Amino acid sequence: MLSRKVSPDSHGQASSYFLGWQEYEKNPYHPVHNATGIIQMGLAENQLCFDLLESWLESNSETLLFQQNGESIFRELALFQDYNGLPAFKNALVNFMSELRGNRVNFDPNKLVLTAGSTSANETLMFCLAESHEAFLVPTPYYPGFDRDLKWRTGVEIVPIQCSSSNNFRIIMPALEEAYQNAQELGFNVKGILITNPSNPLGTTMTNDELNLLIDFAIAKRIHIVSDEIYSGTVFDQPSFTSIIETLTDRHNLQNSDIWNRVHIVYSLSKDLGLPGFRVGMIYSNNETVVAAATKMSSFGLVSSQTQHLLSSMLSNKKFTGKYLKENEKRLRKRKEMLISGLLNEGIRCLKSNAGLFCWVDMRQLLSSNTFEAEMELWKMMIYEVGLNISPGSSCHCSEPGWFRICFANLSEETLTLAVNRIRNFIYTTTTLIQDSGTQDQMLNAQRSQINKWISKLQSSRDMADRY
Ligand SMILES: Cc1ncc(COP(=O)(O)O)c(C=O)c1O
After folding, report:
1. Angle subtended at Cα 452 by Cα 449 and Cα 456, rounded to the nearest 5 degrees
2. Is the pTM of this model over 0.70?
3. Which residues form the Aminotransferase class I/classII large domain (predicted)?
4. Whose CA is nearest to atom 13 of ligand 1?
């Protein structure tokens, strides 16, 4: 009676990434009302600079009242429905994007398409660039939402580019070639590569060499590159961020060549400004046909005129954006340092990172075996025993078990300290168990019987997920 798209599995919501959020919702930590509840560390939200945004709003109340130069523009905004977007907002947005790249590149507002967040931008690009059952190559580990955003409604396939811890998950030519070949063996025509730079979940930026490698590969195979740069304003340490558009522009011989029209940027204000609820994203492309088609498609997910009005006012205030970006960088760096030093004290290492709202944490030594089953056991222990929702690497399609993404910018310093303390206690208890029981096997048996109890809990939440 219903289409195949409404079946629960096609959406990807049954992944441990989304299940963890559901478990958190059932028992959320609150310092006073639920001190033993689950701490949410699986959500890449940036809540560190709300005070700056709020103080800007306070001193710019005219904007909130739909006024401009003392006159009401309420009616104008209420009636505005041009899917090309407000010119003032698009100008402010392209200038902000240049600022994020140290003003090394300029963006043309006519090549920009507004979308309801990066979610919509990525899906729209898939509709524009590929047919159903054509493939995009995506380096692993990747943002779990891509299984929904790139595939669900478009029918596009993702073929992973397997990256490994042996070279800190960098993209190398043999991995690209292997993914391309795998796609062909599966019968998929490869239409492009989608990268996330800075990476979610790694928290690293791509090197110029990696970007050049991707460009060369895309030229050789005559395919597209989509670069999701949603975290470009979260870079808090060296090396600085290089956008693929910079690398491309620097190769002067490539300007106005085929590849010039096959590189597309995705961006959104969800992470850098911490405004995922405002649903502001965009596609930037030199390809006029893509821009024209995506603009028409944006009718299905426009950014409201009142949001455009508010943010054009905020982003065109250069004094504000400069201060915001500097402070955001400082606060993110401090948070990340807190998390990695806390974990390191317990002998847990993170991948060296310079960006993002999370760390990619190596918990391989806590696994009972080098398997994804053991990773899931540890994840369940973390959520039900330790009281932390963190994302297992398998939900990001990591090829090696034992890596977890831990977010640090959506909670207070006190909560982060508590989370690290909980990990410390967990490691202490586990070590004591090994010492008391004598062997690791006995300890694991004890852990397993506990886990069996949790599995039944998890089963009920899976049943819940099926009903969504
Ligand atoms: C890499 C990446 N792309 C896209 C999104 C979706 O962002 P938006 O809120 O702009 O739709 C996220 C959100 O976590 C993300 O990490």
Report:
1. 155
2. yes
3. 39-423
4. 44
How far apart CA 46 and CA 129 sit, in angstroms, is 31
Digit-coded pLDDT (tens) for 283-298: 999 999 999 999 999 9
Task: Please name the residue ranges forming H helices in 164-297.
Answer: 173-185, 208-221, 244-250, 288-297
Ligand 1 center to residue 123 CA distance, Å?
11
- Is residue 287 lining ligand 1, measured as CB closer than 6 Å? no
**Kind of pairing, strands 71-72 and 67-68?**
antiparallel
∠ CA 8-9-11 to the nearest 5 degrees?
A: 80
- Per residue in 297-334, pLDDT (tens digit) is 999 999 999 999 999 999 999 999 999 999 999 999 99
Q: For residue 112, give the H/E element and its range.
A: strand 112-115
141: Cβ below 6 Å to ligand 1? Answer: no
3-state secondary structure of 403: strand
Residue whose C-alpha is closest to residue 185's, from 126, 131, 135, 151: 135
CA angle (109, 332, 141) in 5-degree steps: 75
Q: Is the CB of 227 under 6 A from ligand 1?
A: no
Q: How far apart are CA 114 and CA 283, in angstroms?
A: 7
Distance, CA 120 to ligand 1 centroid (Å)? 9
Is residue 314 exposed (0-12), middle (13-18) or buried (19+ Cβ within 10 Å)? buried
